[in-house]
Amino acid sequence: MIGVYDFCGHYDWTFEWLRAQGGEALLRRYWDEAIHRDSQRHASRLIAERGFAGMAEYWGHTLEHEGAGYDTTTAEGVFRIDMHQCPSKGFLIRNKLGAYHDYCDHCMGWIGPMLKQAGFAVDHEHNHRGQCWWEIRRSNDATAPAEPGTLSGAQDVRQRPDWKPPGVVLDVYRHSNQPDDKAPGAT
Amino acid sequence: MDKLKPAPAIPDQQPEPPAGPAALPFTDTKPVGAADFYFAINATFRFIEKEFGPEGLRRYWQDLGSRYYAQVTAAWKRGGLPAVADYWRAFFAAEPGAEVRVEASPGQVSLDVRVCPAFKHLRAHGRAIIPSFCQHCCFVSEAMAAPAGFTVRVQGGNGACRQAFLPRASAPPPQDLAQIKETA
Q1: Which of A69, B9, B42, B167 has its CA 20 to 30 A from that of A187?
Q2: CATH code 3.40.1350 for B37-179
């Protein structure tokens, strides 16, 4: 049987299996069709119906259940997540797994299209070390992401001393909804 | 099937001694997995079957068993049937909602799956389970067991089943896939 205890391990392995079969395009279709529209359709429905309140409810439940170290901030027109210990990437790091070349892309792979459908866009950065942040605003809101510490205060993951150590390349997304829309190396 | 390529070049897991809790090869910070991931497992099967057909889905299961779970195979090869039993006890202890009895005897390890945790969670949330879901246990486990000198036979399904892990040398009759129920 394939279990959920080590789900992130075979999830990552499956990304590479699909990429080897049909390239990155097939994998992106998998994230959208299988994860966004099938597996996580409860999240899609919740956020489409309830907007920011739905985000707080969904990520509150899911990240608690997965044992994440994270904070969320809700303010006028924006929902922010500061992920300090991603349970998913953390599992791979601890167990020295990494079949696919950029596991972190999967979040934008399904969350991006889900939020687009619900009328939202994302500012997001991840450091490939189990830490990331997200600011979600309505698609027609062109507000730039908050400066470090101004929205989530001391919880802002960018204020960690290990957020961007030498040699770490951030993947950066601005007002985006899809995983290839990133500016690697930006700060 | 036309779209299915030869075995993809995916890095094999390094066959090292199990490092996780009990006989599991991987370690997590929480004792039990998150049940909502069963949604993704079921959805992944559905997507691969849609893209590559039933044979493609079986290939995925076989590749997963022989490559991703290579560390488990190595442990079974070293430890024999007691290691098989230890693995499944640890495995089901970490699956939320599982009710499974694992029995080891000199000639085989039997799993009495009274409540399949995947079916329990998927049904509780009204998810449509792919008809061939239960076959994954057979194809994944056989790919894990064969290099270690074992074979598996599965009977039942649709939420409860019996699985037997036997030495290949005992030459049991081949697995009859008709003995594995489709999702009702």
Answers
A1: A69
A2: no
